[in-house]
Amino acid sequence: MTFRYMPGFGNDFETESLPGALPQGQNSPQRPAYGLYAEQLSGSPFTAPRGANERSWLYRIRPSVRHAARFRPTACERWKTAPNLHDHELPIGQLRWDPMPMPNEETDFIAGVRTMTTAGDVTTQVGMAAHVYIANTSMVDDYFFDADGELLLVPQEGRIRVMTEMGVMEAAPGEIAVVPRGMIFKVELMDGPVRGYICENYGAKFTLPGRGPIGANCLANPRDFKTPVAWYEDKEADCRLTVKWCGRFYRTEIDHSPLDVVAWHGNYAPYKYDLSTYSPVGAILFDHPDPSIFTVMTSPSGEEGTANVDFIIFPPRWQVAEHTFRPPWYHRNVMSEFMGLIRGRYDAKEEGFVPGGMSLHNMMLPHGPDAEGYEKATKAELKPVKLGDTMAFMFETRFPQHLTRFAAETETLQDDYIDCWKGLKKRFNGTPEGDWSD
Questions:
Q1: Active-site residue list
Q2: What are the percentages of helix, strand and coil residues in the chain, rounded to 5?
Q3: Which of 113, 204, 365, 411 is exposed most, by the fewest CB atoms within 10 A?
Q4: Environment class of residue 292 by beta-carbon count within 10 Å: exposed (0-12), middle (13-18) or buried (19+)?
Q5: What is the pLDDT of residue 347?
Q6: Are 157 and 108 in contact (CB under 8 A)?
Q7: What is the domain partition of the chain in residue ranges?
Q8: Count of CB atoms situated within 10 Å of the CB of 147
Q9: Class of domain 278-413
């Protein structure tokens, strides 16, 4: 699969899968080449400032308005949308889950979405939802688009092929793929059953964070984001299109594939990113910066420095700080943190947080290293150490994340999670040295 570099969000691209399919000098010619239809897909208001205006012109075999039947209600029972309040009786607390088991029955990507948390309000386009997905079969004649938000896909097990109106993206564990709000797609499985995470972003689209005094380089570099070349599926068959709109689901029948865009140009497009190209920045003498230094992308809220959603990773990196407690410190936060582990081990949790697992530390609830991790970090020789085989991530939002009934009642919820802090000893004894005896 070939990709074009995405030099920076906001720039225009153009691509065609047949020569001459893309008109030159105008967007909507009277008779487009190949008998195609011109259609604009807008990701922002028409009058948004030039730097924030997002739209793409699609040249397709049939306009997307053509479908064989009216939309009718359908159900995706385990996919929930904010506000989704008071859905269960589980009290607040620090929470953690084991990996979601693969399904036994035939389950495609959309049927395999399980919502863990929701935050904000989809009707006012603020907040997010955190989901897991599990699937064991490809979408063939079924297609989907989400009018409620853009979808950030984080594979954890198995590769997926995301086939969109504007091209095909393949994403493996350690990569991410983003499908913009309103874009039609389907998901094929490349290696058998798959599992991963989804951030459904209701608010401002993801973009790169400012680097501030870091300067022009490091963190996520724009050149490493890739958007697909034009590709189309000219298929006449009994197909189904499912739409998520304000938290409800609707379905219609169409007699063809809606992935029939032969050429396109614009700046509203899907993209993928390899997390291994992220260049982390950290402390090189003592202490360590806030975890926000690991932000890959951010969805701004309108209040400077306070994100609607941040997508943060904890990648392989060197730890070199002197006289420093190196794991994340104990803290309480106005932001709410949903974490997942793609591979390896997270340095603040020695046991219990495994690949495919999740944790939720909601606003103002204290959290930090478990007892074993604390003991190890306070006694370790402070020489340079590389955290090698690891990749954790966090969906962090300014809004409280409300648990769904599914998340509260699933068997993978660890009832004993808070026990990981029981072994933290009192070491205060009135002396400056403290009591570090075992």
A1: 288
A2: 10, 40, 50
A3: 411
A4: middle
A5: 81
A6: no
A7: 70-262+269-275, 278-413
A8: 12
A9: mainly beta
Asked if pLDDT for residue 9 goes beyond 70, the answer is no
Q: How far apart are CA 361 and CA 348, in angstroms?
A: 14
Dihedral, 40, 45, 49, 50 alpha carbons, nearest 10: -10
Q: Do domains 70-262+269-275 and 278-413 have the same CATH topology?
A: yes
**DSSP characters over 105-132:** S---TTTTEEEEEEEEEGGGTEEEEEEE
What phi, psi does 376 have (nearest 5°)? -65, -45
- Tens digit of pLDDT for each residue in 379-421? 999 999 999 999 999 999 999 999 999 999 999 999 999 999 9
Q: Model confidence over 275-294: pLDDT tens digits? A: 999 999 999 999 988 889 99
- Does residue 149 carry a pLDDT above 80? yes
Average pLDDT of 94-112?
97
Q: Which CATH topology does 70-262+269-275 take?
A: Jelly Rolls (2.60.120)
Backbone φ, ψ for residue 417 (5° rounding): -55, -45
